[in-house]
């Protein structure tokens, strides 16, 4: 299994807006080969720190998705988000191979 975290820090006044965007996400990634799960995590101490956690069957499946047209379309929409403050946030991406369960 392969897990990817994309961590973003959003201003306090935008936290609920961002959470709502993810709650209404298109779910198109859910249909990608090798996709297992999506979770949006909120740090309990630093409420503005949100982590998108995606689980994949393998590293190969994840990289196939990030090279796909579907990935490009989703991320182009993010760049065009009307709220410049949110559109300019760059995630910190961490990738993990599961080595024990």
Which percent range describes the beta-strand content? 25-35%
Query: For the residues shown, what is the average pLDDT?
Result: 91
How far do the termini sit from each other?
A: 10 Å
The main sheet orders its strands as: 2-3-1-4
* Secondary-structure arrangement, i.e. CATH architecture: 2-Layer Sandwich
Q: Helical residue percent?
A: 25-40%
Radius of gyration: 14 Å
> How many helices does DSSP assign?
4
Q: What is the number of E strands?
A: 4
By CATH reckoning, the class would read Alpha Beta
**Order of helices and strands, N to C?**
EHEEHHHE
Low-confidence stretches: none
Question: Which class best fits the helix and strand makeup?
Answer: alpha+beta
- Summarize the biggest pleated sheet: 4 strands, antiparallel
CATH topology: Alpha-Beta Plaits
Could you say which overall geometry the principal axes of the C-alpha atoms support?
globular
Please give the domain count. Answer: 1
Nutshell version of this structure?
The chain is α+β, with helices and mostly antiparallel strands and 101 residues long. 32% of the residues lie in helices and 30% in strands. A four-stranded antiparallel β-sheet has the order 2-3-1-4.
Write a concise keyword list for the protein shown above.
globular; 4-stranded antiparallel sheet; alpha+beta; 4 strands; Alpha-Beta Plaits; ABM_dom; 4 helices; oxidoreductase; 101 residues; Dimeric_a/b-barrel
């Amino acid at each position: 299994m392969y897990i990817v975290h994309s961590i973003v820090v959003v201003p306090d006044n935008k936290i609920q807006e961002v959470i709502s965007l993810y709650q209404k996400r298109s779910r198109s990634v859910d249909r990608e080969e090798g996709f297992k799960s999506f979770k949006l995590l909120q740090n309990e101490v630093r409420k503005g720190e949100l982590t998108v956690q995606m689980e994949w069957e393998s590293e190969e499946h994840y990289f196939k998705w990030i090279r796909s047209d579907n990935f490009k379309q989703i991320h182009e929409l993010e760049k065009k988000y009307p709220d410049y403050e949110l559109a300019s946030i760059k995630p910190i991406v961490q990738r993990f191979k599961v080595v024990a369960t």
